[in-house]
Design goal:
heterodimer; A: alpha/beta; 6-stranded mixed beta sheet; 12 strands; 28% strand; globular; B: alpha/beta; 10-stranded mixed beta sheet; 11 helices
Chain lengths: 253, 478
Amino acid sequence: MLKINNLHARVEEKTILNGVNLEIKPGEVHAIMGPNGAGKSTLGYVLSGREGYEVLEGDVTFNNEALFDMEIEERASNGLFLAFQYPVEIPGVSNMEFMKESVNAVREQQGLEPLSAAEFLKSAKEACKQVQLPLDFLKRGVNEGFSGGEKKRNEIMQMILLKPSLCILDESDSGLDIDALQVVANGVNSQRDDKRSFIVITHYQRLLDFIKPDFVHILANGKIVKSGDASLALKVEKEGYAFLGKEFEGVEA
Amino acid sequence: MSEQIEQALERKYDAGFYSEIESETFEAGLDESIIRRISEMKGEPEWMLAWRLKAYETWLKMEEPEWAHVDYPKIDYQSISYYSAPKSMADKPQSLDEVDPELLRTYEKLGIPLHEQEMLAGVAVDAVFDSVSVVTTFRSKLEEAGVIFCPISEAVHKYPELVKKYIGSVVPRADNYFAALNSAVFTDGSFVYIPKGVRCPMELSTYFRINEMNTGQFERTLIVADEGSHVSYLEGCTAPQRDENQLHAAVVELVALDDATIKYSTVQNWYPGDENGVGGIYNFVTKRGICHTNAKISWTQVETGSAVTWKYPSCVLKGDNSVGEFYSVALTRGRQQADTGTKMIHLGKNTRSTIISKGISAGKSNNAYRGLVKMGPKADGARNFTECDSLLIGDTCGAHTFPYIESRNPTAIVEHEATTSKVSDEQLFLCQQRGLNPEKAVSMIVNGFCKEVFKELPMEFAVEAGKLLEISLEGSVG
């Protein structure tokens, strides 16, 4: 599904990624952990194509096609989804309008008929319920006046509606209390199947109690320095990042 | 991002075609004899000519205003032709079958079929082409309800008492430079009278088209809503694409008598000039309404065209408990300049006004809101709420706000809110990450920004306004 080969990237003249290698197969959940500034969010932005994130070296294939040859919206309609850490507001555009346009734009790219208003409404209501957002959120402006937790749940709702094949969750757990965390995790788990893959970027092992990863990778200084199974996350939780070497002594997870 | 947005903003001007129509056009220049000839062409009574000549005298003594935040070369008023009409109109066609088919085709191309059976049910249209009204539809249906909807040149003959009583009563001849000029040389426009207690059975609309080169369009619209009546009126405007600037100096007067309601909506799409600022319409317009007791006037405007716009649809809230509203979307791009806003003059007790202004600037354009809220000494308990929002697209445009507040009554309440925001990289990225192309994304963000105003437009026009922004932004809106 996704092959990242020796990826180097920079933001504003500063090199952040220093040769990332990663392969993700259909149905797998990969957690990416690492200290602050390791390049975790940058990886998500580079893959989704955000402006200002410049690829210096390396390549990425997504479903055997060169990812960096695709426009941002092409990547989206090919099934790449990024759940934002800090989703931005779009005043006056209702969640409903936004998601309907977006779902239908993706469907059009995939050669599918657009959903009718009634069909869309039905699936939107279901998605709302799944992330326990009241239905009036569909009428409200995109992220307009939402609390931090509501924004995160709204991102998961969008993911459920768009049915992407690769979901990148950028710290979808940050700032959530345990109940909200569970809601987000349940939303994600409901979408797991043998085809859909996830990259779960997180600071905390806590999220991985709810979303069981197949692999855990530690990203440090722009490289994956260690990979393992779920037990690696527990080790980080217990020992911090000191085992990565001297420079990480005292860096807590 | 800015590059993508620039591309998204590149606009085609769909109404920029010219119709090959044989016209009778006056030679350029303005003096007393021109005014006499205009009056003669219209076969006007003596009092109308005298009124025009007085206006001309006043205009000669006035100076062109320079206070607006716009910049354009001095207009040579002697290089403009003040009258142009299709020759075929000289025979005064009695029905659509007698109207030059080329004229009808022009309106069809603009999406305004004039055959009643093809029209949107519920909208009567007066089509003004250069200096004359071509046709007014659904007149008989309106007459049944007692509603008068006809070209103002016809009203001068048929309803002289009404015209005499109200013309210049809201915008006096000497009101300002452009209003004085209009009063002297106005050619056509619409006249509406709604009798007492009548709710106008359909939307009324006037569609203005400038076609001839080097002519100015000076239309004059007068709407009188008698006691307890109700009317919704729409106006649209377009012009061919050419390199010369053309002047459009209109006057609109609204009279809402006791308990009457007038809703006046404009979608202005005059040719805006090219990306270097060559060509385009100078849109210098005076619009004002007077509200008597318990009356209400609501102005809604969507301004996307013109090279330079100078326009302040206003309300004089004379009667107690009267209500004035102003909802505006002004979009400028390329080198367009707009200085627009409103005046709410509160004279009566418990008068209320609401101003919602949305300015969107892109390219190298300049967009200014200028508004006056005045609370007179007798305006006990009067209230105003103003919200003035600017949206910037890119970093080479300007947004300006000039609010003026004069309160001479301690019980009056005036509120003013203003915001300035940008279409951000982040918003655009979010939209694209969700599969939307940049055009659609910008268009959606802009539409969201304008939502409060669009919901005030009559349904048929809301669709048209949405489409206009689509064309303007070269994207589609759902």
